[in-house]
Amino acid sequence: MTRERPIGVALLGCGTVGSEVVRLLLSQADELTARVGAPVVLRGIAIRRPKRHHDVPGELLTTDAASLIAREDVDVVVEVVGGIEPVRTLLLDALRAGKSVVTANKALLAENTAELAEAADASGADLYFEAAVAGAIPIVRPMRESLAGDRITRVVGILNGTTNFILSAMDSTGAGYAETLEEAGRLGYAEADPTADVDGFDAAAKAAILASLAFHTRVTAADVYREGIRDITASDIAAAKTLGCTVKLLALCERVVAEDGTERVSARVHPAMVPRNHPLASVDGAYNAVVVEGEAAGRLMFYGQGAGGAPTASAVLGDLVAVSRNLVHGGRGPRESAYADLGIAPMGETPTRYHVSMEVADRAGVLAAVAGEFAKRGVSISVVRQVGRDDGASLVVVTHTARDSALADTVAALRDSEFVNAVTSVLRVEGGTP
Amino acid sequence: MTRERPIGVALLGCGTVGSEVVRLLLSQADELTARVGAPVVLRGIAIRRPKRHHDVPGELLTTDAASLIAREDVDVVVEVVGGIEPVRTLLLDALRAGKSVVTANKALLAENTAELAEAADASGADLYFEAAVAGAIPIVRPMRESLAGDRITRVVGILNGTTNFILSAMDSTGAGYAETLEEAGRLGYAEADPTADVDGFDAAAKAAILASLAFHTRVTAADVYREGIRDITASDIAAAKTLGCTVKLLALCERVVAEDGTERVSARVHPAMVPRNHPLASVDGAYNAVVVEGEAAGRLMFYGQGAGGAPTASAVLGDLVAVSRNLVHGGRGPRESAYADLGIAPMGETPTRYHVSMEVADRAGVLAAVAGEFAKRGVSISVVRQVGRDDGASLVVVTHTARDSALADTVAALRDSEFVNAVTSVLRVEGGTP
Description:
The structure is a homodimer. The mean pLDDT of chain A is about 95. By secondary structure, the first copy, chain A, is an alpha/beta fold. Chain A is about 35% helix and about 25% strand. Chains A and B meet through helix 2, helix 6, strand 12 and helix 12 of A and helix 2, helix 6, strand 12 and helix 12 of B.
């Protein structure tokens, strides 16, 4: 079964992930040959600027990515650079030339999957991207293939390690956001510019990819509602603790039925209270986890390391073996599946639940007035807790599910209410009544 | 891309899983067509005895499986009957005729994968079996494909729902084995003859399948060391609780280095104490979970429903879509990978850890004598706990890792020791020091 010609690989990028890909390719060469049915040979590594990489063979390095990709002995392009350009153009050229692509580039996929998939389809090349979501955790392949005979209803994940590390640390130390972010930076869990992580851009790109797979619909990063964790305070975390919850930055993708009865896709990233007995609550530190609900499969959970050189390289290599097997044995991997073409549900129409903590005046009629604001907007209350204090009282309300816009409007009205001195914490609630 | 000819499916078996397969095939026909690129059409359902199945179309039923499989308009055979014969012969005939097979039959795969895979290879047909292990949980595909570029070092799973239900219930109620088994039967979690579950045969078959995939080596059920849960007592569970542990029936597959330095496969099923903070400890009731450790990926966990009609049917349908896509678009799924051909490590040579509880005489020199029995066999002790009582003392020992035979020999010697009145609980320990 071994074909004469080896599989030639061009690697774009040689950072943390790239150098691990090189290490695994070279150290496991014999095993990979046995698994693929032909040798998998690294033809070259494209880097941006000429500099020394002590851990990879110098003769493989080049700054001319386009020429490397165009080489006749290159069959597969592995991309671990990130960002949109010049990678987009390079990968489109590769796919148009019939070369299969393995990429870890969530930002590019969340913008340009349609264009990449069309180029792949036109030439018959493969496009694999397991490493783009949740690092080493197999989630793209299970959703594209294992669950292809089921109807996925909901995907909820912790997809960003930096924010999960920060929220876990805030939960265990009681410290505020700013000092915890600083600590995360010192420990190497947050970048110098943490925007992509803490403002939810990274998780939103991954949510777009997962929503596209789950619902057979093109969902881009721009379709994903996004709130980060910058505004999470120590008192939010404390409020969650009081209710037996912890706070997580969740990526949620689900089918939502619009008022006209049509089915739409809701994709969103925002912090939420999660009860401590929920499987996602115990996902701590830099770990990732994804819960997938299928109509027949029920609830599945996938857990593991969501980032880092070796874990991400494991996912890249798995894809490289799959693509290489296809080249040796014939056949192609699954293509983009966007036949369902569902609309996107605006955040305001999405059913959510809120937790609201308030400082209120300690006088008669307060609870009635507050409850009235919820009722006026059709929001039903699940739990109310009132605690008297010297200078007033604090009131905690957890709602049942309602349209997010009705909940947001209620909070705005409460901020303006003469009975409410301050709204001290507003958080969405996921996964059962706290 | 849609080919003219639909994909014809023969279904063997119409029990709990089979009727769910039929329901999903019929109710999702349009979605499956969109995903596959051709209609997937159920040609017939083979049942053993002619009887009414209210939930499937009567005209599809037949008792002549061989003729159904042989039909020219059948491309794929889906088998959810179970057992070795007549299924083995039927599936070999199907594969030899170039018809792809999707099976949920763990017993058959744990005996005959080699024979089935060879028949598939000879004709170019596909052999898929996601549903054979852990029901709806995608585990076969992640191990065969997602982790194909990594080196899997260890797989630990809870793979049998019946025994997990019984052990969870014993843990929460403190009841004994016999009465809990009876309760499980009443609730439908245990069969009238529970042997396959409680003696570990079911889990051992699944362990053989996972070990084969993980280590690229043919491992059959006969290679799997097996102990069931019949002998687990309420006092075993209580002893585990005292140490902050719970008892689980684990399937373990790992690479073991033999004394001559060669690498071997250890595959085993036995009850073990697991610390309550271990991810597998919280897998309760009829759920399954599998932890896979890869050199690059690190520790991954997969969790979900391990049995039941709909969850198992979800896995079957995912395979059916994959096989059908291959027929429409060309190509084949991954084949058997057994190139590593590692030897099997006997249980005695496998490194394990023991917990031993004893009733001992309350006199000087007891601890020294007991410790001496361990030391004599090269077993190092991790924890000793001695509790004085009216009629003697109880002594609990947790060891470090040692050869299983040295540990078993030590326990035998302790039973004979004049200082030991009774050995009250012996359990292997997994996942860190309790």
